[in-house]
Amino acid sequence: MLAYLANTLIFIMVGVVISEKALNSLDMYDLFLLVVDYFGITVIRALVMMTFSPILMRIGYGFSWQNAVVAAWGGLRGAVGLALALQVYIDHPLIGGKVLAHTAGIVMFTLLVNATTMKKLLEKLGLSDVSDSKKIAMGNAVRQIKESNHRTLTMLKADRFLADADWDMAERDCEMHNPYMEVEGKHAEETPLLVRLSTCPNCESSVPNEPSPKEFAEMTNDGRVRLIKALKVSYWKQFEHGMLSREAVQALINLADTAMDEEESFIEMDDLQPYWRVPPYLQKLKDKLEQFKQTKPTEHIPPPSNKVLLFMYTVAAHVMFDVVMNILIILNMAPIILELSSDDDAPYMGILNIINYVYCTIYVAEAIWKALAFRRFYFKDYWNLVDLFIVILSIIDIVIDQAADKATGSFSPSILKVAKCLEFCEWVVC
């Protein structure tokens, strides 16, 4: 409604401005230019369609030459062009009057010529023809609605509270006709099947004939569309009964709409595979994590014979050892974050350095304990190698800080100890 009012207001404003300001400045040469502009715009639009038709025919929903003709001829000009021309007239009154008049003339030509002949053009190109399958479907639908109306009215007539109702008016208002079965202004009787007859050239009798290949293709496409619509109804019913999730029904409906718009297309299994197939990069990441993943040492590492090493092996292989170390790693995140976000002259930096030394000692003790307990098997685990690398970096950080005052500059190797959380990830994965 608002769009209609805005369009009406623009047309009225343009009409008033042209009649009062621009109409007096027009002559016969302007009328000639107006006709040239109209034909030029139509030809340019047709040339653009011809230029891009090879691309449009191979992308999206396709683009036939009939559609190109309709798109070129259906380029109607209206409120948008008039609004722009009106703005030109406001900004440049000297030439804006002719621009507004020419724009209004082109709009008038397209509305009087293109718009009024569009129906004939569609009929000539065969784009407005109704296929036999659509006529059959419409006839069946109208018949079912009529039967439902008749049953409902019969039931209501038996209601004693509605005895004073005007049933003739009710039946007249509920009457429905098939728009595809009109003959000479009267509605013909709808039949479930359409029987097409041809006249025999020999005996001049009417004999049934078969649909043409084009009509067969139209009926096949209509059947495909109706089947996809039935699938969409089924998807919504499954969603209502809790058999499909909201995301699943949205994905299926989108696939159905896409298949419905494309010729000879249907919902294939290949269209559904992207919704459950793991992306290749995630699969590679999963494979790498599986390579890094290691089972518990007690499952494949033999225990040592030495009593001391056996005790260390038992402690390192116990689940509580990993629990305690992971708790310490989580607690170590707080001082690391505080150290990275603070200035070098902060009053609590000394306490943070002491905490750093304590945790570095704990990590070194853990690495030595595991190396002695698991022996050469310790160096065959990727997680242990990463842990050992971080421990070495922590030691280097402390040595550099002690040997030269803040020789590392703005970069502190202690930031790499954040990677100790990978050990926590290892514990979760395993």
Automatic annotation (TrEMBL):
It is a multi-pass membrane protein. InterPro entries: Cation/H_exchanger_CPA1, Cation/H_exchanger_TM, Ion_trans_dom, Volt_channel_dom_sf. Signal peptide: none annotated. Gene3D superfamilies: Voltage-gated potassium channels. Chain C. It is found in: Cell membrane. The keyword Transmembrane applies. Coiled coil: none annotated. Residues 4-124 form the Cation/H+ exchanger transmembrane domain. Keywords: Cell membrane, Ion transport, Membrane, Sodium, Sodium transport, Transmembrane, Transmembrane helix, Transport. The keyword Transport applies. The chain crosses the membrane at residues 35-56, 68-89, 95-115, 310-338, 350-369, 381-400. GO terms for molecular function: monoatomic ion channel activity; potassium:proton antiporter activity; sodium:proton antiporter activity. Pfam families: Ion_trans, Na_H_Exchanger. GO terms for cellular component: plasma membrane. GO terms for biological process: regulation of intracellular pH; sodium ion import across plasma membrane. It comes from the Eukaryota. Residues 320-422 form the Ion transport domain. PANTHER family: SODIUM/HYDROGEN EXCHANGER, SODIUM_HYDROGEN EXCHANGER 7. This is Sodium/hydrogen exchanger 10. It comes from Desmophyllum pertusum. The lineage of its organism: Eukaryota, Metazoa, Cnidaria, Anthozoa, Hexacorallia.
